[in-house]
Amino acid sequence: MEKIKELKIEAKLENIESAIRFINSLLEEHGCRVDVMQRIDLALEEMLVNISQYAYEGITGDAYVSVSFPEETLVQLDIRDKGVPYDPTKKEDPDVSIPLRQRKKGGLGIYMTKMVMDEMCYERKDGYNHTILRKNLPKDSSTYSET
């Protein structure tokens, strides 16, 4: 049976670092390469920033990060909150070919998350937003990857 580890934090910016430490300790135990871990950290940070700034409309609520390894070379994060229903996978990708000053504000964090993770999906279930992120974990010993 697949083991799931979970962290509950108050959805505030200052608590994101503890969530990153939590996931990194599990990834290190699993032998995750540093470059892959950095991509996962970026995605987790972006999702938690969005929850802390937008999910609870001016009040503070909780965020949950569940981590599992459904396969030896796959990590899955289920990031959830009871905030305003919001599907980040429906967010239109920004046009990164135009100059930064001409772009619409927002959406770059979700776009970066889509780029660094292998899969991103969303569901609203039992009153929770669930953003599920999956990343393949290469098992070689190199410290750099093209993905």
Please give a handful of descriptors for the protein shown:
alpha+beta; Heat Shock Protein 90; 31% helix
Walk me through this protein's architecture.
This protein has 147 residues and is an alpha+beta fold. The longest helix has 22 residues, at 34-55. It contains 3 helices and 5 strands. The relative contact order is 0.21. The chain has a 5-stranded antiparallel β-sheet with strand order 1-2-3-5-4, covered by helices on one side. Strand 2 (62-71) and strand 3 (74-81) form a beta hairpin.
What is the CATH C-level name? Alpha Beta
Widest sheet: strand ordering: 1-2-3-5-4
Q: Count of DSSP E strands?
A: 5
Whole-number mean pLDDT: 89
Approximately how much beta-strand content do the residues carry? 25-35%
Helix content range:
25-40%
SSE pattern: EHHEEHEE
Give a topology summary:
Layout: E1 4-10, H1 16-29, H2 34-55, E2 62-71, E3 74-81, H3 108-116, E4 119-125, E5 128-136
Antiparallel strand pairs: 1-2, 2-3, 3-5, 4-5
Helix pairs in contact: 1-2, 2-3
Task: Put the structure in a nutshell.
This protein is an alpha+beta fold and 147 residues long. It contains three helices and five strands, in the order βααββαββ.
